[in-house]
Amino acid sequence: MDLQEKRVLLTGGSVGIGKALVAGLGQRGVHDIAVMGRRPQPLEAMQL
């Protein structure tokens, strides 16, 4: 799948598999990544 210049909304992306997906999507050229999660602290720690 070609992900260059794509935009992604990822729910549950602050820990575990979701966090790994965020890193992988960034490496594959995703243009914008929006991450949602229940706990604010892990989300704030992810600011890229």
From TrEMBL:
It comes from the Bacteria. InterPro entries: NAD(P)-bd_dom_sf. This is SDR family NAD(P)-dependent oxidoreductase. It comes from Hymenobacter fastidiosus.
